[in-house]
Amino acid sequence: MGQDQTKQQIEKGLQLYQSNQTEKALHVWMKVLEKSADLVGRFRVLGCLVTAHSEMGRYKEMLKFAVVQIDTARELEDADLLLESYLNLARSNEKLCEFHKTVSYCKTCLGLPGTRAGAQLGGQVSLSMGNAFLGLSLFQKALESFEKALRYAHNNDDAMLECRVCCSLGSFYAQVKDYEKALFFPCKAAELVNDYGKGWSLKYRAMSQYHMAVAYRLLGHLGSAMECCEESMKIALQHGDRPLQALCLLCFADIHRSRGDLELSQLKLHCLSESIYRSKGLQRELRAHVVRFHECVEETELYCGLCGESIGERNSRLQALPCSHIFHLRGLLAGGQGAPRVPLGYARAQLA
Predict the structure, then answer these.
(1) Sorted alphabetically, which Gene3D superfamilies does this protein's record hold (predicted)?
(2) Does pTM surpass 0.90?
(3) Among the residues of the chain, which ranges form H helices?
(4) Do 144 and 344 contact (CB within 8 A), yes or no?
(5) Helices (H), ranges, 156-240
(6) Successive 10-residue mean pLDDT values, the chain, 352 residues
């Protein structure tokens, strides 16, 4: 299979994939891998396979193709392609919750000389690293990485990257229980989709709607939460995005549980059953869990440097300083710091 034929088959696969004929697209791309000797074409089709398996939730397959893509990039001796393949490897490990590996591969990306890490892909690397730090509960490092990713997005007018970072920031603030900011950032992502996203994949709208649903639920606005979650699930079903479907199901369960619809909340209870069975009726283990919780607070330094109280035990407004340290807003104002700074340069967005 020559270069022209390889290119035609890749485009055919993309058209099938975009029309939700995923299995047919995968069949076409796998045939390209079997028959094509064009290394550049093989590299591109491997990238398509990485993306497709990511959206289907087949993360082990995603990882397998990312590893093959690295070997192909090395054969081509192309530093830019090697960077792209290492980023896919980092993302694969992020999806598999191998967060330490994700951080390591992201650092490899940033250390490659003479590549686009300082321009086109640097923001995506920082975003993946931030997601990994968030998975490890290293909150300050996560915030620093998200801030870097936003700078890349602003400097390169990359609204798509900014949208993804805002969704990750929504997750960040939901975890540290500042629910107002957990809603603000996904709302900003939704604005970006409305303003720039006509040519984007619908997954960006679905992603922003899901994170809005989570924040609305945490704030007790259950009607808005249900509306956003239904919109996200509708798009996820249309596009076969199984990971997002699973997240929406869990969000639906949380909403029904908050409403007191106990039967419908059984899905959430099922997902938590393993931890419930371990602790049910075992007071010693329960006490050990409480002790471990406070140890984790100490290990992650997840406490306010002004008032000394732990962050993340209850809903409270937080403030991120330029150094990415986090404080309770009430403590910051009481400490005489003046008007709070909107985190990550979003003062103009707050005022808009």
Answers:
(1) Tetratricopeptide repeat domain
(2) no
(3) 3-18, 22-35, 39-55, 59-76, 79-95, 99-111, 122-135, 139-155, 159-175, 179-196, 203-219, 222-238, 242-259, 266-271, 273-279, 283-299, 329-334, 347-351
(4) no
(5) 159-175, 179-196, 203-219, 222-238
(6) 82 86 90 89 93 89 95 90 93 95 94 68 93 94 94 92 96 94 96 90 93 96 94 88 86 85 50 43 57 59 71 73 73 49 38 36
